[in-house]
Design brief:
The complex is a heterodimer. Chain A has 24 helices and five strands. By secondary structure, chain A is mainly alpha-helical. A five-stranded mixed β-sheet of chain A has the order 2-1-3-5-4. In chain A, helix 3 crosses helix 22, helix 9 (about 155-175) packs antiparallel against helix 10 and helix 19 crosses helix 20. Chain A is globular, with a radius of gyration of 25 Å. Chain B is of the alpha/beta class. Chain B has helices spanning about 15-20, 25-40, 55-75, 75-105, 115-120, 145-150, 170-180, 200-210, 230-240, 260-280, 300-305, 315-325, 345-365, 370-410, 415-420, 420-450, 455-460, 465-480, and strands at about 130-135, 160-165, 185-190, 215-220, 245-255, 295, 330-340. Chain B is globular and about 75 Å long. Residues about 495-513 of chain B have low confidence and may be disordered. Classes of the chains: A mainly alpha, B alpha/beta. The interface of A and B includes residues 68 and 183 of A.
């Protein structure tokens, strides 16, 4: 019943040299690091989420209360854990952390990995070399892919996990025997989906969808008999258990350390609180527009793939639809429910989806367009991905209402590089005053835990400081007590965020400086922020009690 | 591994043929002496026989204990934290090692596979004589099934040398055997004179003195060997190198679905024989052999001093000795079905014997550390520590750490915090989570991949099995000190229906070997 995906060993005419994937990875990584270096060191362009994660990873070692729990429980642990071994290098090279470069290295590595895995998927599908390389290169150069390789965000990490899981699931779905030997593919796919959950929360729906798909395919394939139910259950457990366990264990660890299992929803720093305070996206119409600009041929490609899957009755095309489509569907659902900002990056998974589906449609060995020659396939690939490339470049450079975060960072760079446009630097260089504030505090040579600051918004200051231990930050043990009563806990300075960012100091001490407010502190400095998107700070010195 | 050295044998004097078949008088006494003390007389250092004078190691052990006691009194926190740190490091290393072995076995399974066609392709005339040793003690009820299973072996009867080894004073079993074994069958009964220690390896050694085959294997009385196994072994030996001395077949259980315990043990055996032992094989570390279905070249077996009658897991000990002398052991793609213990008490007894034997074998191997290092190298010693030593020791330590964890979660007493400085704490937590979760997941995976998916739910609750293992480990350590060579006999036949015993073989339902 299930069509046979011709195994690579039989279909590929000449075995591809095993060095090609490694060279590809190295070349792409070098390219992404170069772009990232230009952005970070040339234009001081780093997203707040990325810088925040680097600061958290650094706080594990360099804070008044160093401990692993400093990585925080609102967001997933994997990015911070991966950066953890490298943050001590800030002693030798402070810019690693202060500019957020470490996060860029991580995202570039993950995105280069995505490109390499995509190439592997195409090779497994026995896509002809010319088509394979066209798809791979055009994927690597897609503007969103390029941007998210170089801005330190975690979408790249999730993408590489999902692509690697897709690769394994494709192998499993394409096999026709039920000896259970392909259970190893399910095991690896399951582990990758679990890892993906630790990278970004959305992976849980990908894991659920993959499990559902595996159960369905396994049920259709399993021979009728006494063991059928157990076989199907076994397959489902193999692919679904790691993600389920990751979900439960992370919730338990979070509950054990900070007292709440789902900080994303309950914490003031979590998504729910942020969305409640902000302006959410323009509904499905805006999402539709984003998708149209991001990948115009997406709809026809998806429809073709679905048509092919139904006609051939095979599950191969269903794999990427399940894995990536589920993540997209989640974003759309949350958007409609008003629980999500309308950021473009929530639609990023449409790009790998289209690339993989394209590979399936153009696959050799009897599963694709058999009559088509290599030129046809290359032309189709170039047309599909080329159009996406052009349109998403236009999206990122010209449509701030649809791609706000990207526009603010990429447009100024493009302007500067082409010599056009004004002096508006958008959101680049937004941390300049946070760094100046850090330098000023460093100059005071303060003892440990004497500056109260909430890293929910002060992460850039902490990341840029040469004396990070002077701060008493949110993850430190004495933070809550010191926040309630700064004079009684040895605090010498308070940092209060005036705009941008979530700040418990502002929430608690909004009345500082007002006639009715407390008198134990006076304002000694104001850092309004370098640009329109920067965070603004006021610094308060605690006057010693008479 | 490039340590391919020329394998060596011990200087064993050949046994004169009249003595070999002697059944009375001096010849019999010589055979019995050889069976009991052959290895120990040859080289006492290689045997677990308790030696009359206080060995050097005991003196060192005493000194170490005194130093430890002093350290605990003078610097309790640092000493305790160090001990905890060593234990945690061992846990972490064992977890990582296990996962590496599994990964290696899955990626590139070194198990020797011989197809049915290849096994049957050898002509009868080209097959060597094969000795099958079947020791039995106080189990007359399993004999009918055993004889039936042996009759199904696809091997020419004139080249089979099956020795049913019975203790001479075990009258019920002898009577049952005599009624089943007729003249003209390849099975002959060998009566082992009763003597201490009354162990399986002593009986096997005794049988070995009159064995005629080029290859020797052991089956337990309740085993159901795969009919083509002997032929497969012959093909594999002929294919293998000159240093291939031993082939270990896979063991599994035919009563897997009987209850939760049998499900757990079936999964454990599958992981052991499909993944852990093949993975270990690829590292060229010493392989602790399974209790049965190990096929050994008789010349090498005799040249190794045969089995150590004083060791309760003589199979593991032999595996280590073979590796120390440069002989290679491979896994054979064939399965023998045994009976899983369905009774918890009985199981704890059996498992405690295994643990005791592992510790015995480990300490015997460690008697000459320098020689051991020369023979198997650092990786071999690491494999020995992480596989043979750690299995009972970690089972013993588990309750201690479970207790500390529970105490910490409930009451957070400061002394627990002192025992776990940050690095040790995080490493311990990580190993605990990774180790426990991966054990569960491995069980589920092996259930599906070995074609027994209905056992997967049992894998999900396997942590409860670890409690039983800890009991067994505690019993093992106690017995190691008080009765090292006592052989805790496992009761078999617990899977038989209460009524009559119909000697049938259950179908090999998973289709694999």
């Amino acid at each position: 019943m299930t069509a046979v995906l011709v195994r690579p060993q039989r279909a590929t005419p000449a075995a591809a040299p095993s060095r090609a994937p490694r060279l590809l990875f190295a070349a792409v990584l070098a390219c992404y690091l170069a772009v990232g270096a230009v952005l970070v060191f040339g234009f001081d362009s780093i997203m707040e989420d990325a810088l925040s994660r680097v600061a958290a990873a650094s706080s594990v070692w360099w804070s008044a209360d160093p401990k692993l729990a400093a990585i925080g429980y609102v967001w997933t642990p994997l990015p911070a854990l991966l950066m953890l071994p490298f943050t001590p290098l800030r002693a030798a090279w402070p810019e690693l952390v202060s500019t957020g470069w470490l996060a860029v290295v991580l995202s570039a590595t993950a995105m280069a990995g995505s490109v390499a895995v995509l190439h592997g998927i195409l090779a497994d599908l026995a896509v002809r070399p010319s088509v394979r390389w066209t798809v791979t290169v055009l994927f690597a150069l897609q503007p969103v892919i390029l941007v998210y390789s170089a801005n330190g965000m975690t979408e790249a990490l999730l993408m590489v996990c999902l692509l690697a899981a897709t690769r394994r699931l494709l192998r499993w779905a394409g096999g026709s025997d039920d000896s259970g030997a392909d259970g190893t593919q399910l095991v690896v796919a399951g582990l990758l989906l679990g890892l993906g959950y630790l990278a970004r929360y959305e992976a849980i729906v990908a894991a659920a969808a993959a499990t559902g798909l595996v159960v369905a395919v396994s049920a259709l394939r399993a021979p009728r008999g006494a063991r059928r139910g157990a076989t199907v259950l076994g397959d489902g457990l193999l692919v679904g258990l790691p993600a389920a366990v990751a979900f439960v264990v992370w919730a338990i660890v979070s509950w054990a350390v900070v007292g709440s299992p789902f900080e994303q929803f309950t914490s003031i720093y979590g998504n729910s609180a942020l969305v409640a305070g902000g302006r959410t996206g323009g509904g499905l119409a805006a999402v539709g527009e984003q998708l149209l600009w991001l990948a115009p041929p997406a709809a026809p490609v998806v429809l073709l793939a679905v048509f092919r899957a139904v006609r051939r009755r095979d599950a191969v095309a269903a794999v990427p639809l399940a894995v990536f489509g589920s993540v997209l569907a989640l974003e759309w659902a949350l958007n409609v429910a008003g629980s999500l900002f309308g950021f473009l990056r929530y639609q990023i998974m449409v790009v790998p989806l289209v690339a993989v589906l394209l590979g399936i449609l153009l696959a050799g060995g009897g599963t694709g367009l058999r009559r088509a020659g290599p030129a046809f396939g290359t032309a189709v690939a170039a047309a599909v991905l080329g159009t996406s490339l052009v349109s998403s470049a236009a999206l990122v450079l010209d449509r701030p209402e649809l791609a706000s975060q990207e526009y603010l960072r990429v447009r100024p760079v493009a302007n500067a590089l082409t010599g056009t446009g004004g002096a508006d630097t958008g959101a680049n260089g937004m941390w300049a005053q946070d760094r100046a504030l850090a330098a000023w505090l460093d100059g005071l040579h303060l003892p440990p835990a004497s500056v109260l600051a909430d890293t929910g918004s002060a992460f850039a200051v902490v990341a840029a400081s040469d004396n990070p231990r002077q701060f008493l930050i949110t993850s430190d043990d004495g933070f809550a007590a010191a926040l309630a009563d700064p004079p009684g806990h040895g605090i010498r300075y308070l940092l209060r965020n005036e705009h941008g960012g979530v700040d418990t100091v502002r929430n608690t001490w909004a009345d500082l400086g007002t006639p009715q407010g407390p008198t134990w502190a006076r304002r000694v400095a104001v850092y309004p922020g370098a640009g329109p998107w920067s965070y603004g700070w006021t610094v308060w010195a605690l006057t010693p009690a008479p | 591994m490039s340590r391919s050295r020329v394998p060596t044998l011990l200087p064993v004097a050949p046994l004169p043929s009249q003595v070999a078949v002697g059944r009375s008088g001096r010849a019999l006494a010589m055979r019995l002496r050889l069976a009991t003390d052959g290895l120990a007389d040859l080289d006492p250092v290689l045997s677990a026989r308790v030696r009359p004078r206080v060995p050097l190691t005991r003196r060192y052990g005493l000194v170490a204990l005194i130093v430890l006691a002093a350290a605990l009194v003078l610097a309790p926190r640092a000493t305790a934290a160090t001990l905890v740190g060593v234990a945690v490091a061992l846990y972490a290393a064992v977890t990582a090692h296990r996962l590496l072995l599994i990964r290696r076995a899955v990626a590139n399974d070194p198990t020797v596979e011989v197809t049915d066609a290849e096994a049957r392709a050898i002509r009868d005339a080209d097959l060597p004589i094969y000795t099958v040793l079947v020791p039995a003690y106080q189990e007359p009820e399993v004999l009918p099934r055993l004889i039936d299973g042996l009759a199904r072996l696809e091997y020419p009867a004139d080249r089979l040398d099956i020795l049913l080894l019975l203790e001479a004073d075990d009258f019920p079993t002898i009577a049952a055997a005599e009624s089943l074994v007729g003249v003209g069958t390849p099975v002959r009964i060998v009566l082992v004179p009763p003597s201490e220690p009354r162990t399986k390896p002593k009986a096997c050694n005794f049988g070995l003195t009159e064995a005629r085959g080029e290859f020797v294997t052991i089956y337990d009385a309740e085993d159901r060997p795969e009919p083509l196994q002997l032929r497969r072994a012959v093909v594999a030996f002929r294919r293998g190198g000159a240093d291939l001395a031993c082939l270990q077949a896979r063991l599994s259980y035919h009563n897997a679905e009987q209850n939760l315990l049998t499900r757990w043990f079936t999964l454990e055996y599958d992981v052991w024989f499909r993944w852990l032992l093949p993975g270990l094989m690829a590292t060229r570390a010493p392989i602790p052999l399974g209790g049965t279905s190990n096929h050994i070249r008789r010349d090498v077996l005799v040249g190794m001093g045969a089995w150590d009658a004083w060791n309760v897991t003589e199979d593991a000990d032999l595996g280590i000795r073979l590796a120390r002398h440069g002989w290679h052991t491979a896994m054979l793609g064939s399965t023998t079905y045994e009976e899983a213990n369905s009774d918890a008490i009985n199981w704890v007894k059996q498992r405690s014997r295994w643990y005791k034997g592992y510790l015995q074998s480990f300490f015997v191997a460690l008697r000459r550390p320098g020689a051991l290092h020369r023979e198997i190298g650092a990786t071999g010693i690491a494999g020995l520590v992480l596989f043979v030593f750690a299995t009972p020791v970690l089972a013993l330590l588990n309750p201690l750490f479970w207790g500390l964890t529970a105490l910490w979660w409930l009451a957070t007493p400061p002394f627990v915090a002192a025992l776990f400085p940050p690095v040790i704490y995080y490493l311990g937590m990580a190993s605990w989570m990774v180790g426990g979760l991966s054990a569960i997941y491995t069980g589920v995976a092996v259930a599906r991949i070995a074609g027994k998916p209905h056992l997967a739910p049992a894998a999900l609750v396997v942590p409860f099995c670890w409690v039983l293992m800890s009991l067994a480990a505690a019993k093992a350590v106690l017995q190691l000190v008080r009765q090292p060579t006592y052989w805790e006999k496992t009761t078999h036949g617990l899977d038989a229906p209460a009524g009559g015993l119909v000697p049938t073989l259950t179908a090999v339902s998973d289709g694999s070997h």
